[in-house]
Amino acid sequence: MEFGRAMGNDEPVTPVFPNSDYCTGIAGVIAIIEALIRRSEKGGSYVIDVALNYYSQWLVNSCGVYTDDVWQRVWNANGRRSFRHYHNMLYSIPLVLGMIRANSEEKLFRPEFFEDREVKHLGTSIRAVKPILQFPEGKVELGFNVGTRTNGVDQPR
Q1: pTM for this model (two decimals)
Q2: What is the pLDDT of residues 45-67, one digit of tens each?
Q3: Helix/strand/coil for 53
Q4: Which end of the chain is more exposed for a tag (fewer CB within 10 A), N or C?
């Protein structure tokens, strides 16, 4: 709701980046670990109840929202594009990435931040963000055992 209001709309608008998804997942994992610790110390069973909206409500109610002058400064610096409740990620992400590129290309999209990774099952490579942690040359070989796979590639089992 606050993201929509920040753009002058009195309607909820899905934020472009999945902050609620990510943070709700972290909260769920922490709750599971806490339940396992309690069970090992005291016994019993525990119910975990998480939802995207629980996190979003906590964030707004406990941490607050940006002031109107902050929203206006960010919005003005990025062309005042307004998103609506019916816009999905396929619509909004390319537009937001375009705004980021237009305003922060030299800070965020520097070539040294990216690397090409081989996608063996597709016979191609993709450009991806380099790992933040860097290891000394020849000491550790970074890589993935299984590449990204789309739905329907593997047989169900």
Answers
A1: 0.53
A2: 999 999 988 888 888 899 888 88
A3: helix
A4: C
